[in-house]
Amino acid sequence: MPLLVNLRHLEDDSVRFKGELPVEELDLDVRDEMIRADRPLEHDFEVQLVDRSLLLQGTLRLLLNCDCVRCLKSFTHEVRLENWTRYLPLDGEEKLPVVNDVADLTPYVREDILLGFPQHPLCEADCSGLPQIDTGRATKASDPGQTVEESSAWAELDKLKLK
Question: Could you give phi then psi for residue 116, rounded to 5 degrees?
Fold first, then answer.
């Protein structure tokens, strides 16, 4: 069920939203295969009517299942918006759409949660990545006088004779 607020209920007092919102309701279009939102959004916020605008204040929390972009290890990342505040005008160019005195707050919660997603999820800030595999090729000469043949794409391109 989306986060809907009836503006008539806000005329006398504020309205509190506390609970969980299924991730399907958020309609998160995550195009990064390293991030998966499988758990519901936990929310606890209050909505007030202030000068023909809505003021939303509270906390949003969403746990993401991620894969580290360096080592591919799975881990959980928490998107937590403490002291979250959103101001939604009811008049003007960027006014909140209202249908039959009811406004849907879900798109605005979605926007702010998406801003908290990691751009490049890392299991740890100093993750060293995948372990190096010994290919059997020598990369450096152990003796300064010794030369080692190194096969690389650049070396092969250097051999080309282009006129």
Answer: -90, -5
Quick one: three-class SS letters along 5-44?
A: EEHHHHCCCCEEEEEEECHHHHCCCCCCCCEECCCCEEEE
Q: How confident is the model at residue 69 (pLDDT cuts 50, 70, 90)?
A: very high
Domain boundaries, the chain: 4-115
SS (H, E, C) the chain: CCCEEEHHHHCCCCEEEEEEECHHHHCCCCCCCCEECCCCEEEEEEEEECCCEEEEEEEEEEEEEEECCCCCCEEEEEEEEEEEEEEEECCCCCCCCEECCEEECHHHHHHHHHHCCCCCCCCCCCCCCCCCCCCCCCCCCCCCCCCCCCCCHHHHHHCCCCC
Q: Note the pLDDT tens digit of each residue in 144-162.
A: 555 555 567 787 787 887 7
Task: Enter the pTM of the model.
Answer: 0.73
Q: Are 71 and 129 in contact (CB under 8 A)?
A: yes
Per the CB < 8 A criterion, the answer to whether 48 and 10 are in contact is yes
Q: Max CA-CA distance within the chain?
A: 87
- CA contacts within 13 A on the Cβ side of 121: 21
